[in-house]
Specification:
- This protein is an alpha+beta fold and about 425 residues long.
- The protein is built from 16 helices and 13 strands.
- Strands 1-2-8-3-7-6 form a 6-stranded mixed beta sheet, sandwiched between helices. It has a 5-stranded mixed beta sheet with strand order 9-13-10-12-11, sandwiched between helices.
């Protein structure tokens, strides 16, 4: 009943996009956050992001940040894992801890009436995790199970091979969970070191949405984060781009091949990002009107679906896509993919394709603001990506300002059919590794 009530509050606490009023808040201790205040429902959502993520793993300790993040809710302060979980649930609060390639993300939802104690539990998880050996061993077993599962998943096998080819020895080139060998060797001291590397005030971004004033949020920020070290580990260097064009086939016994493809991408802070953003939507943005979906699925029936995306890694952005196809059809699907990649690079897109993409992108954008938790996440993400505070109100105008010529120029600059790498996991007929 309590969890259902929280879900009900999240739905109700949803301002329309046009009414989103973002305020920058600086705590007495100098910590900055962006706030959308809404006092109509006694509920607060927080999104706290620490830049660096699993890319901060120390040499030889791959998987340490991922495991450390999984241990944050397994006991903190003088509470063991069971006591901590019981208290959080009893307060109708919800915490989430997630490690990504470029960030560690902590989410929290709490009722106003319980905010004091809920915030204290969150503070303990951030600042005083226990890292007890029994908990570490239990989480280690869970991580090893994930690694084992990934090693038998065609999509994960394709991703591992692709990123290894693209980034080599950079942290981007290996799985953030680590390997069986690296995870087995991790110690409690590695957890302490990973915690110290990630959790620092010089790399934190906070989004808040809900029932809290700017003054109250400032005090909360200092309580949650004020005692953290000022600086953490050095952030990663730019990832060396080592990807070349061609095909990699990884034999795997399955009647359907999984294909992951990609090339060098574009950074979000590039002044020409929005033409690339719109180009990606036209090319394979995930609906039936995309160019690749029309050519490969609708017209030829070579796959059930194909999509592209901009992988906006902080230190090595990529332009990527994926599809699955039966073993006897995947070679033809790749031929059509390369042909369309070259056609768009040379000729751009039609005005009709541009207008359809802009209509979809601007019309679907307000749907992202469907609750305080999503709004808090957007606010933290905007700061991490160095977006201006008025981005929400100007984003659709930027999409609509993109012209057919802008997209043509970006396609010519970005898309390279000869440089497109395709990793295929399966037993594709008539297809072998090349280049």
């Amino acid at each position: 009943m309590i969890r259902a009530f929280i879900a009900f509050l999240v739905v109700l606490a949803t301002p329309a996009m046009a009414q989103v009023d973002i305020r920058e808040v600086t705590s007495p201790g100098g910590i900055t956050a962006w706030l959308v205040q809404d006092d109509s429902i006694p509920f607060l959502a927080l999104d706290i992001r620490f830049e660096g993520g699993t890319s901060l793993d120390a040499p030889g300790r791959r998987g340490a940040t991922y495991m450390m993040t999984g241990l944050l809710e397994e006991g903190a302060g003088d509470l063991d894992s069971r006591e901590f979980a019981t208290e959080v649930e009893g307060l109708a609060a919800r915490f989430g801890f997630d490690a990504n390639t470029d960030s560690v993300v902590i989410t929290a939802q709490m009722l106003t009436e319980n905010r004091g104690r809920a915030a204290e539990l969150l503070r303990l998880a951030i600042q005083e995790p226990s890292f007890e050996q029994d908990d570490l061993d239990r989480v280690r077993t869970q991580v090893l199970s994930i690694i084992d599962s990934n090693e038998n998943d065609p999509g994960e096998i394709a991703s591992a091979a692709f990123y290894a080819q693209a980034f080599g020895d950079h942290p981007y080139g290996s799985a953030l969970e680590g390997t069986t060998e690296s995870v087995a060797a991790l110690t409690r001291q590695d957890m302490i070191d990973a915690h110290r590397a990630v959790f620092a005030r010089d790399r934190v971004y906070v989004g808040a949405a809900g029932d809290i004033s700017a003054e109250e949020l400032g005090l909360l920020l200092d309580r949650l984060l004020g005692a953290l070290p000022e600086t953490g580990a050095a952030l990663p260097d730019a990832a060396p781009y080592e990807l070349t064009g061609g095909v990699t086939v990884i034999d795997y016994p399955t009647p359907q091949s999984t294909a992951l493809f990609g090339q060098r991408g574009i950074a979000f802070n590039d002044p020409d990002f929005f033409p690339a953003f719109v180009l990606n939507q036209i090319l394979g943005g995930g609906n039936f009107r995309s160019r690749l979906m029309q050519e490969i699925r609708v017209d030829r029936g070579l796959t059930y679906g194909i999509s592209t995306f901009l992988a906006l890694f902080d230190y090595g952005p990529l332009m990527m896509g994926r599809f699955s196809s039966s073993n006897e059809l995947v070679a033809e699907a790749i031929d059509v993919l390369r042909a369309e990649w070259a056609t768009v690079a040379e000729n751009g897109v039609t005005q009709e394709e541009l207008e359809a993409a802009q209509l979809y992108m601007t019309g679907s954008y307000p749907l992202r603001f469907d609750g305080n938790s999503n709004i808090a996440s957007i606010l933290a993400g905007m700061q991490a990506d160095e977006m201006p505070i008025d981005y929400i109100n100007t984003r659709n105008d930027r999409v609509l300002a993109v012209t057919q010529e802008d997209v043509r120029a970006m396609a010519a600059r970005l898309m390279d059919s000869d440089g497109l790498r395709v990793v295929v996991v399966g037993q594709p007929e008539g297809l072998e590794s090349a280049n």
